[in-house]
Amino acid sequence: MVDDRHTNLDEVFHALADTTRRAMIARLASGEHTVGELARPFEMSLNAAVKHVKVLERAGLLRRRVQGRAHFCSLDARPLKEAAAFVRAYEGFWSDRLDALDSLLRQTSRPES
Amino acid sequence: MVDDRHTNLDEVFHALADTTRRAMIARLASGEHTVGELARPFEMSLNAAVKHVKVLERAGLLRRRVQGRAHFCSLDARPLKEAAAFVRAYEGFWSDRLDALDSLLRQTSRPES
DNA sequence: CCGATCGTCAACCATCCGGTTTATAATGCG
DNA sequence: CGCATTATAAACCGGATGGTTGACGATCGG
């Protein structure tokens, strides 16, 4: 079964909680890339980048197609669906009221600065 | 300025990468709760729960209204918007093709087991 | 004032994280 | 074959994380 269907949200969000890994995801959105290609843009050792790749892989966000010595990585966004479901459930919650409160506060009181 | 407007995605996603904290968020979606109320459902010390609250607060997802000795916490979902924007950008990416590939593989080749 | 309650702070601890360096395995190429 | 390339593995390190316990501060209620 290729479809993971347990989608550990902890792991998915953890994978997203790093700028390097989010950049890798963005890169993968443009198509397959080898591990080396994924690593190149970053100022870190290949080994460090490999660890990031593995974090993405563990989260189910990255799949690997080994061909010879090259490992071609591609994005699998399916785990993102559950993450998106969670975020969407609360995105926008109270925002309007808080924004209104902000404007109100900025209008009435004019504090330091 | 109440509006943070730098919304550290690292911190936001990190805050989301923990079951306890996601549960707290869900709880907060039902309205204001004190720190103690947020902590009660979990099998951990109050102090441990307080740390989770602080992680949420640092990520800008939780605001605090102190009244007497009670600290009333409320959800601020605004940082989630940027997180949602990222997730949405890649959610669904390649999914259709991968799903199609899955079915195809399961159909044509009938591998081990 | 006294005691209970709510919450914070600080110290401590084990584990994890993100990076390094070094070594090694597997493949492609001349 | 011999060597460069690609990627992994393992050991190590400093700092963050997630939990504990214990002590403290502030507030409410009697």
TrEMBL record, chains A, B:
Keyword ATP-binding on entry: no
Keyword line: DNA-binding
Recorded GO MF terms: DNA binding; DNA-binding transcription factor activity
Secretion signal span: none
Domain HTH arsR-type residue range list: 1-95
CDD domains reported for this sequence: HTH_ARSR (cd00090)
InterPro entries with a match to the protein in the record: ArsR-like_HTH, HTH_ArsR_DNA-bd_dom, WH-like_DNA-bd_sf, WH_DNA-bd_sf
Protein name as catalogued: DNA-binding transcriptional ArsR family regulator
Organism: Hansschlegelia beijingensis
